[in-house]
Design brief:
Layout: E1 2-5, H1 11-21, E2 25-31, E3 34-37, E4 46-47, E5 53-54, E6 58-62, E7 67-72, E8 78-81, E9 86-93, E10 99-113, E11 121-124, E12 129-132, E13 136-141, E14 147-153, E15 155-160, E16 163-168, E17 171-175, E18 182-185, E19 201-208, E20 214-222
Amino acid sequence: MKFKTIIFVLIAFAIMAVAQDKYSAVVLKVRGKAMITPRGDDNDPVKLKKGKMLNSGDKITTGNRSFVAIKFLDDATLLRIRSKSEVTVKGEWNDEGKQDKSIFATLGSIWASITRSNSIFSVTTPTAVASVKGTKFWSIVMGDGSSMFIGEEGMVEIANELGTVLMRKGQTTEVGKDAAPVVRRTRDGDVPEDEDSIERYELEFDFENDLQQKKTLIIDIEN
C-alpha cells in the first residue's frame, strides 16, 4: 500500500493546521458503525466520520462488520482498525517535527504500515508492547486479553515483563496472559480475512482549526 501527499498549494494549509493545532491523524475511511471518544475523561462517544481530524488520546471503537483507516499527519504511517476493536491513538510531536506514535489496543485487530523515520511507533496490548521502526504488521487482541502479532515486513520487538523477542516477516508471536512472548512461523488462518482493502482514490478533507480558519488536506492513495 503506497501513500503520497499530492503537491498542491492547498497542502500548505494542511501543514499550517498541523503546526497550529497539533492534530495527530486524519480519518481516511469509515465503513459501518464507528464511534470516537474524544480525549478526556468526561467526553461521550460520537459517530466517527471520514475527514475527522484526530487529537492525541482519541479513542476509536468499531462495531460488527466495520472498518476505519487513519493516516498520521507527519508521514505516511497508516493504521487500519477492523471490526469489534477498541483502539486509543496517541501521537506526540517531537522537536524534529515527527510524532512518537503510541497505539493502545484493548480489543480487536489492527494493521499498521509504518514509515521509516526518526520517530517511535509502538502498539500496547493488555499482555505486551510491540515496538517498530519501519514495517508492516498485525496486532490482534482476543477477548481474554491475550495477544497475537503477525509480521509482514521488517522486524518487530515484542516485550513484556516476562521476556522479549524479535519477530520477522513470516513469523507470528503469541502472548498469553501471564506468559512470555513466543515466536513461531505464521500459519494459514493467522492473518484475518481481507475485508477492508483500500482501492486507489483521492481524498480531500476540508476542516476548520480552533481559529476558525478553513483548511484542506489532499491525499492520494493507491494499492
